[in-house]
Every structure is written in structure tokens, then in C-alpha cells.
Amino acid sequence: MGFTLNLAEDRTIARPTLVPPPSDAHKYSRGHAMVWSGPPLRTGASRLAAQAALAVGAGLVTIIGDRAALAEQAAHVSAIMLREADDKLACIDRRVTALAIGPGAGVGIADIVCALQKREIPMVLDADAITAFAGDPARLFEHLCANDVMTPHAGEFARLFLDIDLADRAAAAYTAAQRSGAVVLLKGPHTHIAAPDGRVAVNRHASPWLATAGSGDVLTGLICGLMAQGISAFDAACMGAWLHGDIGVRAGPGLTADKMMDHIPLVLRGCLHDASADDTGPRT
């Protein structure tokens, strides 16, 4: 599939345009996303991210972790592959095109994050992958680049950027991107995205029904799945935020994170460049 980011003149993200994959597409041509698993009894967040990456179009998705965690994952997934992590991370081969780490991973993962950064694979860092560097953000920033995305909520943002005032969230995201060298997606009712090169955008297409446990993990997976397909970090962050918001708008009351995947096909259908006139979903 091919996604195109659409922005209004005021940098508000609009509905992305989706073109179906070519007839000769195969799973590897659509990208391989990898998600780092949480430990046993904390695998749900990484599983949500992996499921979202698969649903948004990545040709393959693999969860990587230790054997005990993968045994738990295996009881819940079928289309998602599992690989046991080793000390040298040899299981991450050249076919992996994007990687997500953080959801449910535990705050003791700073060394793993740094090791993964050296592989030069586009990464999405969320939750614990951000909090793990609360005492030493410079260590994280040393290896971040414009191909990486951080997706903090306000609390996680403050742990890395103690001196940046969140009163102006657009300015905060911009300053954080300049300092870190990565794309920063600052989550909130209006989600602000900024790239190190100065590009900015805001997603206003969302719903308060997204305020539910695991929703952010789904966002991480959407962005990772888009990046796995070769979409740039900034564009993937912007479009992931809009798609995530559209799930909330369409689903409405009673939405839970584990049900969000059920809405992704309809959200994507609404983005098709030749979407049928009978698609009555909300449009922005």
C-alpha cells in the first residue's frame, strides 16, 4: 500500500490518501515490523502494538523477547511471528524495516534501546523506552536521528525535557525535536508532531473515547507499521495519529484497545483514493 500525508494550510493533518499495493506485492515488499515484547504477565501492550502494525499494512510482524514472554505471546497470536532475543540481537536481520520498543517493556531496558539504535533501523520509542532515560536523556539523544519517533504523553515528555514548558504544546514538541534529533509526537487532545528539520503538524481528528488503557500502544504499532512500509518517520507519525484518531471517532462509546484492531480495515477503506460513495464514516 502507498500512503500520502495530507496537510491543511495551518498544518492540521487531514485524511491520508491510500493507494492499494501493486498486484505483484508480496509480504517482504510490504515491510517487516518488529516489536519488543514485555516480560511475562506484561505482554499485552507489546501485543497490541504488533497487532496494529500488522493491521495497518506491514507485510510481516514479529514480536521479539525472552522465551517465557514468547510462550505467553504464543497463546494469543497467530499471524504474528515470534523470535527469541539473544545477547547479540542476531535475530534482527536486514529484512526488518522498522522496530517499536517501550510498551510494557519495563524501565530497565535502556541498554537494549541503545543496542538497537546501533542497528540503524527506524524505531518508534514509547512508554518505558522513554522513561528508562529519565535520569540521562543525553544518552538516548546521542543515537537518535530523524528516522526515529518518540511518542510521549505529557508525563513521559517531562521526564526527558525537564526545562521545556508544556503550556505551549506545539512549541514544546518543536523544541524537543530540535534537541533530541528525532521526530517527537506529543500526545494529547490535540497531538503535536515535530521533526528535527523544523516541520510541524497537529492532529485535531480524535475522540475522548481513546482515553483507555492500551490505546497509546496501538498508536505505537500504527506508526511502526507505516514506517515498516518505507514511510518517513514524520509522515508516519502524522498519519498514524490521524488513523488512531479516526478509530476513536468511528468506534465511539465502549471502545477498548483490544477492539481497536477491528476498526482499522474500515478506517483504511475510508482513505482509499477511490473510496466508494457509500462510506459514511466521519470525515475531516
Automatic annotation (TrEMBL):
Residues reported to bind (6S)-NADPHX: 45, 104, 153, 217
Q: From the UniProt record, list the reaction(s) this protein catalyses.
A: (6S)-NADHX + ADP = AMP + phosphate + NADH + H(+); (6S)-NADPHX + ADP = AMP + phosphate + NADPH + H(+)
- A GO biological process held by the record: nicotinamide nucleotide metabolic process
The record's keywords, sorted A to Z, are: ATP-binding, Isomerase, Lyase, NAD, NADP, Nucleotide-binding
| Residue ranges annotated for the YjeF C-terminal domain, each copy included | 10-271
Names of the cofactor(s): Mg(2+)
Amino acids binding AMP = 187-191, 216
PROSITE patterns in UniProt: YJEF_C_2, YJEF_C_3
A Pfam family cross-referenced in the UniProt record is Carb_kinase
Q: Which GO terms describe its molecular function?
A: ADP-dependent NAD(P)H-hydrate dehydratase activity; ATP binding; NAD(P)HX epimerase activity
Annotated EC: 4.2.1.136
> Assembly and partners?
Homotetramer.
Which NCBIfam families does its entry note? yjeF_cterm
Family the UniProt entry places it in: Belongs to the NnrD/CARKD family.
Q: What does this protein do?
A: Catalyzes the dehydration of the S-form of NAD(P)HX at the expense of ADP, which is converted to AMP. Together with NAD(P)HX epimerase, which catalyzes the epimerization of the S- and R-forms, the enzyme allows the repair of both epimers of NAD(P)HX, a damaged form of NAD(P)H that is a result of enzymatic or heat-dependent hydration.
Write the protein's name: ADP-dependent (S)-NAD(P)H-hydrate dehydratase
Question: What organism is the protein native to?
Answer: Sphingorhabdus rigui
* Source species taxonomy: Bacteria, Pseudomonadati, Pseudomonadota, Alphaproteobacteria, Sphingomonadales
